[in-house]
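User: Before I run my own analysis I want an independent prediction to cross-check against. Here's the chain; please return only the structure tokens and, at the end, one sentence I can use as a sanity check.
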Amino acid sequence: MMTAEIVGGLLFGSIALVADGLHMSTHAGALLLAALAYGYARRHAWDERFTFGTGKVGDLAGFTSAIVLAMIAVLIGYESVSRFFQPVPIHFAEAIPIACLGLAVNIASAWLLGGGHEHNHRHHGHDHAEEHPRAHASAHRDNNMRAAIVHVLADAAVSILVITGLVLAKLFGWLWMDPLAGIVGAIVIASWSYALIRATGAILLDMNPDRSLTARLRQTIEADGDRLDDLHLWRVGPGHLAAVVSVATSSRQRDVLHYQRRLAQFKILSHVTVEVVPLTPVRL
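Assistant: Structure tokens:
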């Protein structure tokens, strides 16, 4: 389909069709990248070099796909603006059917991808599905599959714009509609790319994935008068979070196992490190 759109767009004068084909060319790369990421994560799931498992491999792949999306958006925008100043005749009878076929392929691809994106990830002895119903959705999202789906949906959106631009140009003689469709498509792709970069970048930089969960952890630890001195929460894979907790307590009976049992109710925590220190009384 990619070859048909690029060749057809060049032969029949539609820059929007060429742009759609160029973007479709990223599908093979994006889907291949997603597949390689899953394969790599599975092969190295028990590799001790990965301290917190291989759950972030998918986020790294998603971040890379988002960068590729941004580059494609720039390319489409540049080519579309060029066509405003150097318009070419368009062969509508040939270009429109190719664009419609491209849309059909994208819809079929999105349907296939959307039907099988539930994955569990192992993390050194932890092998469970997404069990914490109250955790924020971002903690469970599979950004590797999300990136692949965004690639396909972005191209479907561009296909719709291409068809719209070609039909209006044919009916009303608005040849500028074809490059305008390309520019709008570039903006849509760029916005999706930006959202994906923010989501995956936050995970790769170990930003807090769920502030409400952080508040519940603090409330659980401090329920009996203890003091939470330090808490770090980050995502190690879809549906898996890690936490480092430092607790100050005046009770000698409350050891590390006591707090680990208390935090066991949060099933999304795959890795928990607890430090217990004596609570120093305040002197007046």
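Sanity check: Confidence is low (pLDDT under 50) at residues 116-135.
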